[in-house]
UniProtKB/TrEMBL annotation:
HAMAP family: SerC_aminotrans_5. Residues 4-347 form the Aminotransferase class V domain. This is Phosphoserine aminotransferase. The gene is serC. Its EC number is 2.6.1.52. It comes from Marinomonas pontica.
Amino acid sequence: MSRVYNFCSGPAALPEAVLKKAQAEMLDWHGAGVSVMEMSHRSDEFMSILASAKARLKRLLDINDDYEVLFVQGGASTLFAQIPANLANGYDSACFLDTGAWSTKAIKEAKRYTNVKVVGSSKEQNYTTVPEFSTLELDESAAYLHICPNETIGGVEFADLPETTLPIVADLSSTILSRKIDVSKYGVIYAGAQKNVGPAGVVICIIRKDLLARSSDELPSIWNFANLAANDSMINTPPTFAIYLADLVFEWLEAQGGVEAIEAVNIRKAKALYDFIDSSDFYSNPVEPAYRSRMNVPFILADESLESLFLQESEAAGLRTLAGHRSVGGMRASIYNAMPMEGIEALIDFMRGFEQRHG
Ligand code: PLP
């Protein structure tokens, strides 16, 4: 079986070069005689991997010393709760922008820890757009403003940030490292790894150091951001293999020319796919063009009864996991950093052929 183009939203395709390197190092990492999975997380070898991953991420995102880079466990969903548990301490509320399914989940979990103020929502537009920032009802005395700049399910992305004095907490799970960002504009950035960073099992959390003072001693130690920072993310055994793979992905990204270079490729990939969808009456994407995601491209077929045939034929053509999220149906192509332009071309060719055969 040869490798196929994998459009899964996550766990997602990893760069082939990364998988090959991991394979070559699997039995004997750099002469250690063991794989990374088998070595102590306190060993000099693993500590060097952790330090390398951190240093590469800092270079790639130009993260300055005002920020701490943490490797956290439990998935981004854990941070939906962990963030309010740490950051809302001493505050009455936290503000949330509601732009889709993942914002909604973050809101649900935060409600267990603080009063949630939804400052704007595109729910009435079926999450096909982003509320005008000038209309947001921000409470500048809240603990922070939470946003999800790329809604993986709805395929909605925004790059600008609302004007506020509040620390901005951003779930960048499905967009981190795909485009240039100014980290200094954020209080916290967090991202589950299994899209643009590596395998599932680790969450990147970039937190402004002054916010660590909000973490209360009453929190479970493993949840306490200040404690995690003080212990270099090593309160307990970290997900060593996931961190190692993340380091290899960061190394690969540096070799591609970094975030700016991959962003240019991502723009070309997304444009080609959206242009094709827009040129056809057979396929459509419901998102307002200014907010279309570069990473997750949902689309529907004019004739819904052809969906299962589309999925069957696309799988057979080596185009894997094009089904939309179970909550919304339709199709979705997730085209993260590791998806080459050739994968987009193969998808467009297939879609064009399918339309000719069945349209
Ligand atoms: N946030 C976003 C934007 C996501 O896309 C996802 C998963 O797809 C999550 C959070 C949840 O991540 P996890 O499964 O790591 O908890």
